[in-house]
Amino acid sequence: MAKFLDMTGEKYGRLTVLGVSKKVQSGKRKRYYWDCICDCGNSIEVRTDGLTQGMTKSCGCLKIEQDKSNLIANHSHKLSHTKLWDTYYGMIGRCYNLNDDRYADWGGRGIGVCDEWKNDFSAFVTWSYDNGYSEEKTIDRIDNNHNYEPDNCRWTDFKTQSRNRRSNVLLEHNGKFITIMELSEILNIPYKTAYSRYRKLGVKRSDFNK
């Protein structure tokens, strides 16, 4: 019979062994399971051979990080013609390409892209995946007078971004200036209907909700 080896205090990969969790009889053998704490703070129960043979090195966080790293390293070049790719190069173009039709409203106003993103597409990809990117969302600058950079950008839906456009028309309602989108929600009418009525009535919103 193999001698019991106390692994308490030992470290395997990112896991530190806290002590025996349980022992299970398997035929003539006893299999020990160990309570472990991962460097990230999560707890996990691992069988002896999972630790000693290197099959389990973390609570699972290591694999997630490796998968993300592999995705970026191995597939960044495959992202051409995807939404992330088009968003990135559209952002670069309107900020730095004098021939871009949109340059006047971005680069022409002094809007740029932070060095972290401008010099490394994969950095932009990583930030996007970590900050709610999905095919249904678009990138939005929180302050339209500042650059494209992590602290000033977010992935948002159309409704949120439409509220943040520099070209937004503001209407006075109950003493406050609000966007057409916000007014459509207050009046419980479709945005297109509200916009159509604005075009007919202008900023004078008497009878706007009729």
Brief descriptors of the model:
elongated; disordered C terminus; HNH endonuclease; alpha+beta; 3 domains; 210 residues; four-stranded antiparallel beta sheet; 35% helix
Précis, in short:
By secondary structure, this protein is an alpha+beta fold. The chain has eight helices and eight strands.
Q: Total domains, how many? A: 3
Q: Cα-atom Rg, whole angstroms?
A: 28 Å
Provide a count of the helices.
8
User: Secondary-structure element order, as H and E?
Assistant: EEEEHHHHHEEHEEHH
Tell me which oligomeric state these chains represent.
single chain
What does this protein look like?
This is HNH endonuclease. It comes from Candidatus Jeotgalibaca merdavium. There is one protein chain. The chain is of the alpha+beta class. It has 3 domains: 11-58, no CATH class; 65-163, no CATH class; 170-201, no CATH class. 35% of the residues lie in helices and 21% in strands. It has helices at 48-52, 61-75, 83-96, 115-118, 121-130, 158-163, 180-187, 191-201, and strands at 11-12, 15-26, 29-38, 43-47, 138-141, 153-156, 170-173, 176-179. A 4-stranded antiparallel β-sheet has the order 1-2-3-4. Helix 7 packs across helix 8 (191-201). It is elongated and about 85 Å long. 14% of the residues are buried. The model is unreliable at 204-210 (pLDDT under 50).
